[in-house]
Amino acid sequence: MNWPRAILTDSGGFQVMSLSQLRKVEDKGVTFRSHLDGAIVELSPERAIEIQHLLGSDIAMQLDECLQLPASQAELRRAMQLSLAWAERSKRAFARTGGPALFAIVQGGDDLQLRAESARVVTDMGFHGYAIGGLAVGEPQQVMLRVVEAVAAALPAERPRYLMGVGTPEDLVEAVARGIDMFDCVLPTRLGRTGSALTWEGRLNLRNARYARDPEPLQADCGCPACTRFSRAYIRHLVKQHELLGLRLLSLHNLRFLLDLTAGARAAIERGEFAVYKRHALARLDVEEEAATWLT
Ligand SMILES: [Zn+2]
Fold first, then answer.
1. How far is the CA of 226 from the centre of ligand 1 (A)?
2. Cα(30) to centroid of ligand 1, in Å?
3. Centroid of ligand 1 to alpha carbon of 195 (angstroms)
4. Could you read off the pLDDT of 174-231 as tens digits, one per residue?
5. Which residues contact 251 (CB under 8 A, 6 or more apart)?
6. Of the residues 58, 181, 184, 214, which is catalytic?
7. pLDDT at residue 286, as a whole number
8. Cβ within 8 Å of residue 281, ≥6 positions away
9. 28 CA from centroid of ligand 1 (Å)
10. How many CB atoms lie within 10 A of CB 293?
11. Catalytic residue at 184?
């Protein structure tokens, strides 16, 4: 894919849950119908590792089963145990293909006992890093943060701890405070493609008429290609005219906004001042939420 930096690939567990209506989960793997062409696809832990190896992945993820919340305790236990069995098989497959790093995924939904068991077993197996999966799938933020806090504390601090599929600016700051080192999320580019910008003043919907003559950049002091060259009014024009450049500029800005936020968190941790950074960031983002509510 001609990307000169590190590549992280997911195994397909979450994608099967989120994209496929027709799926069958068994011990050997998961069978599902492709949402693209209707073809039947079989994905096993071994095949998921092989595909990631062929993609040239630097960080590969084990195949896991991810459930939507709410789910029953019995279902959560079954999926958690299946994910542990698949972690073991993924590790064995990875030993054959080789590669820089393989991460395990802790499952167990919103059940803290299941989460603790999952974290203990994958830590005993030994992986290069550990992810928390199965969150940001319909549960309230407080539930997510409670699970993150418990699981991050149960994972080795000297290894990367990765929260999958999260999140909003507030989620990122709160999760970093609980020990999370890595994130991935479609939010910045999905918002960009739907005409919205993440800013300290709130989520701006650039389709809104109030920006028609707004000469300001999306976010003052932002160094991204959108903010250094274009006004809100012009980006609004591009979005309204279905010019892809508008959606691209918004995506670039949103990515930069989250990267600046996390770079600020990293620098604050190095200075030993993360608590202050978190307080300031959340205070500014509270303003955002009020403004965002007011705008819609
Ligand atoms: Zn920007």
1. 5
2. 41
3. 14
4. 999 999 999 999 999 999 999 999 999 889 999 999 999 999 999 999 999 999 999 9
5. 188, 189, 192, 193
6. 184
7. 74
8. 169, 173, 261, 264, 265
9. 46
10. 10
11. yes
Report yes or no: 34 and 73 within 8 Å, Cβ to Cβ.
no
Tokens of 237: 């024009």
292 pLDDT more than 90: no
Is-catalytic flag, 10? yes
Could you tell me whether strands 40-43 and 59-61 are parallel, antiparallel, or unpaired per DSSP bridges?
A: unpaired
Q: How far apart are CA 184 and CA 252, in angstroms?
A: 15
Cα 217 to ligand 1 centre (Å):
7
Q: What is the mean pLDDT of residues 88-92?
A: 98
Tell me the CA–centroid distance for residue 224 and ligand 1, in Å: 4
d(CA 82, CA 78): 6
- Mean pLDDT on 258-275: 98
Place of tokens 């393989």: 102
Q: Which residues surround ligand 1, an ion (CB under 5 A)?
A: 222, 224, 226-227, 253
Structure tokens that stand for 24 in this block: 């069958």
Which three-class secondary structure state does DSSP give residue 57?
A: coil
Q: Report the alpha-carbon distance of residue 217 to residue 236 in Å, rounded.
A: 11
For residue 210 the two structure tokens come to 């109030």
Distance CA 117, CA 201 (A): 41
For 225, half-sphere exposure in the C-beta direction (CA atoms, 13 angstrom radius) is: 9
